[in-house]
Amino acid sequence: MQTQTLPGTGQDVSRLILGAMRFGGSWSREEPVSASQRATVERIVQTALDLGITVIDHADIYCAGKSEAVFGDVLRAHPGLRQRLFLQSKCGIRFAGDPTPDAPARYDFSRAHIVASVEGSLRRLGVDHLDLLLLHRPDPLIELEEVAAAFTALEDAGKVRHFGVSNHTAAQIALLRSVVRQPILVNQVELSLLHPHLIDAGVGFNQTSPGPDRNGGTLEYCRQHGITVQAWSPLAKGAVVSGVAGPGVAPETAQAVAAEVARQAAEHGVSGEAIALAWLLRHPARIMPVIGTTNPARLRAAGQASEVTLTREAWYRLFIAGRGGRVP
Ligand SMILES: NC(=O)c1ccc[n+]([C@@H]2O[C@H](COP(=O)([O-])OP(=O)(O)OC[C@H]3O[C@@H](n4cnc5c(N)ncnc54)[C@H](OP(=O)(O)O)[C@@H]3O)[C@@H](O)[C@H]2O)c1
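^ thats the input. predicted complex w/ NAP below
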């Protein structure tokens, strides 16, 4: 497994991250986690460890808190496991109906909510600190001093070691950094061969197609300031290998990506998942893909990404398939 020192932490971590979004089974608060789902989580965590994956990505909301809770049970059952892992979680999204029935789904970066969210995560996980806390999605009502106070309170109490964001633009990160004293170390964003916009924005600049750059130089900003980019949905939920994508992706683009992925997989003697992830790993921003499978065979297939370094030509062939046409 490829590893890297996560800038700003001094900690060596795996380049691949295991995402815990589905660990709790369903998103219903009422439905308990089944024995078979618990066994699935045990197996996928063990597979990750066997592969050398040491970073686990949580959020307070995943499966309404059940993902953190079931993972906490795994930690309790395996003393010493916590020390081998880099644990990150996210906060700032609130469900509809919380706390009053008429409350809409919304974002909440108030000091009180951030602190309460982290305390809930620590309780469910059964740990005394998170290695990294991410603000999940930008809150238009962000009060910078509230976030600064929350981060400082959490850091001073030893509850969170490092801080970052998710789904934030360069300008939003710059604004946050202007007030928050802790370094922003990570920006976790959607990025894959079938969602290459963050990378494509820099290529399509000033072209009629694919249209205006809505990414605001975010990838470049992150690189300039040593902010590690983590890629969520790096396999586009399997579409990069199946060629069958959801809404928003042209069917012929998904098919072209899957065909090129399959061709390069055969050439290297690895899985298609490995090629799709190697495309992210090859980028000089040292992107860390966050893989969401709960299937050990698929995680092992993904782990083969560490064995592949794509040439510039191979990288571009995949990029061209994913962006739906040649570069300008
Ligand atoms: N920051 C954010 O806003 C945000 C948003 C979404 C997700 N995330 C994080 O990113 C992680 C990954 O997201 P994701 O699950 O959407 O990413 P993904 O790894 O692209 O997709 C995994 C999903 O695709 C399915 N799948 C189908 N074919 C597959 C194949 N050949 N290889 C791998 N998976 C295949 C998996 O099902 P099986 O389990 O049956 O394999 C699973 O449901 C999440 O767990 C979460 O930690 C963050």
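The chain has a mean pLDDT of 95.
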